[in-house]
Write a structure and sequence with these properties.
Layout (H helix, E strand, L loop, with lengths): L3 H9 L4 H5 L2 H36 L7
Length: about 70
């Protein structure tokens, strides 16, 4: 999403597709996209497990001694 404006700029100046694909900028954007995707994929299950653990710990009843 953030690189969309830059890609439009490249197209406006008639830069070849091969030249665009060989730029460091494209490799950087791909690496950022992969890192962000991996972060989201790992964060959601971890947060769910942590929330389930916290909620289950609160609902356990402690036996009352008489």
């Amino acid at each position: 999403g953030s690189s969309f404006a830059t890609m439009i700029l490249f197209m406006a100046y008639s830069v070849n597709a091969n030249q665009i694909l060989n730029m460091d900028y494209v490799a950087l954007e791909i690496a950022q996209a992969l890192a962000g995707s991996i972060g989201i994929v790992l964060t959601v299950p971890f947060t769910s497990l942590l929330g389930a653990y916290i909620l289950s710990a609160k609902t356990k009843k402690v036996p009352v001694q008489e």
